[in-house]
Amino acid sequence: MALKFSDIFGNTDVTINNQKLEEVFNKTRDMAENVGKKSVERLEISRKKVEYLDAKTKLAKLYEKYGEMQYNSFIGETVDSEELENIAQRIAGLRERIELLSDEIEQAKAEFNEAVAAATKKTRDAFQKEFDKKAKNEVTVDADELDVTEAETEEEATEE
Predict the structure, then answer these.
(1) Residues with Cβ < 8 Å from 116, sequence gap 6 or more?
(2) Residue 55 burial by CB count (10 A; 0-12/13-18/19+): exposed, middle or buried?
(3) Residue ranges of E strands in the chain
(4) Which 8-state DSSP code applies to residue 147?
(5) pLDDT of residue 90
(6) Over the chain (160 residues), what is each successive 10-residue block's mean pLDDT?
């Protein structure tokens, strides 16, 4: 779907028949859509980070509880060995979950960065292609090569 200048600004009195301007709008729109999609991916990375931090907090509390129970056992208090084993298993499970989340976050960040870099390069290359095409069509003339003559108005030209 191609957008026209009037579609964006809502002014039907202005008609711009500039294919290049519409092309710029289309390329900009495509890039904005890509950024929107990438924002969703970035939100997922943030969600995983929150889950990762939550697991780290739970792990710290379990370590504290485990350490307290071990100390109590050391000083001769009775400790429920089944509960101690349960805490050790929960610690092992959380450590695995934290490692998995860490890997997922790093992978998602790398994929996100690669995708954004690729989209940026694609857009930059498209604009560069247009710029190069326009640069090839430009004619440059040194001022030293020009002969300057006096210009005549239409009236002066018809009088002769």
Answers:
(1) 35, 38
(2) buried
(3) none
(4) P
(5) 97
(6) 57 56 75 76 90 96 96 94 96 97 93 84 80 67 56 59
**Which pTM was predicted?**
0.58
| Cα 76-77-78 angle, rounded to 5 deg | 120
- Give me 44's structure tokens: 């997922």
User: Measuring CA to CA, how many Å separate 66 from each of 5, 35, 57, 72, 153?
Assistant: 67, 46, 14, 10, 99
115 is written with which tokens? 């995708």
pLDDT at residue number 126: 77
Write the single-letter amino acid at 135. A
Measured CA to CA, the distance from residue 60 to residue 91 in angstroms comes to 9
Residues in CB range of 48: below 8 A, 6 or more apart: 101, 104, 105, 108
Q: Is 22 left (phi over 0), alpha (psi -120 to 50) or beta?
A: alpha
